[in-house]
């Protein structure tokens, strides 16, 4: 029998994160394109980001038929937050800059690349990237490499750069509570055995 679930954050009712989810305004719009395999993941950080940002939209799928419309909201220029040799490092908006529609694929690296492969319009977008050296707070999963962040962490870091000095740290509150809850559920001994000192490898 499945446990009762919050219809908003999709967490078990006893572990609902909604009281911790902020309601943040941003100049930037965020479009999260989530691979279906991520929807029921215990750490669905894209959903947390979408709930906490007033200008965020979460769309689940592999092929997005309405992509031309999604990528062209009036008054915004779309950029794909995804690594590439020609990706431009994000910089703070200059006065008069048109705000960005930040397009963020959500899934494992393999699944995210599949989304790009299946949606040529997505793959054709100019790409932007975060500064190197970011350290994830995601202590439950070994990062595939340095600078690998969860979806919500990547969005927070991107917005902090684009809209400095505005802080988007409150968006990480439910994420951190989620991590703490998962660690508590597995027990300290199991956590230490599997994740060492808690730092990502």
From TrEMBL:
It is an enzyme of class 2 (transferase). The keyword tRNA processing applies. Residues 2-187 form the DTW domain. Its EC number is 2.5.1.25. Keywords: S-adenosyl-L-methionine, Transferase, tRNA processing. InterPro entries: DTW, DTWD2/TAPT. One of its GO terms (molecular function) is tRNA-uridine aminocarboxypropyltransferase activity. GO terms for biological process: tRNA processing. The keyword Hydrolase does not apply. It comes from the Bacteria. It holds the Pfam family DTW. Belongs to the TDD superfamily. DTWD2 family. This is tRNA-uridine aminocarboxypropyltransferase. It comes from Pseudomonas extremaustralis.
């Amino acid at each position: 029998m499945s446990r009762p679930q919050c219809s908003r954050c999709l967490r078990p009712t006893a572990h609902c994160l909604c009281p911790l989810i902020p309601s943040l305004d941003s100049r930037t719009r965020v479009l999260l394109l989530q691979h279906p395999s991520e929807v029921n993941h215990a750490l669905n950080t894209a959903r947390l980001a979408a709930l906490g940002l007033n200008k965020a939209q979460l769309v689940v799928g592999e092929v997005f038929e309405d992509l031309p419309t999604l990528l062209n909201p009036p008054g915004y220029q779309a950029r794909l937050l995804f690594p590439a040799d020609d990706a431009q490092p994000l910089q703070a908006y200059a006065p008069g800059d048109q705000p960005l529609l930040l397009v963020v694929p959500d899934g494992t690296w393999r699944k995210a690349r599949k989304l790009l492969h299946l949606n040529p319009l997505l793959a054709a977008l100019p790409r932007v990237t975060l500064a190197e050296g970011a350290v994830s707070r995601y202590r439950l999963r070994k990062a595939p490499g340095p600078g690998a962040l969860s979806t919500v962490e990547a969005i927070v870091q991107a917005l902090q750069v684009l809209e400095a000095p505005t802080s988007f740290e409150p968006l990480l509150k439910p994420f951190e509570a989620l991590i703490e809850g998962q660690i508590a559920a597995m027990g300290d001994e199991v956590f230490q055995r599997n994740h060492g000192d808690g730092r990502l490898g």
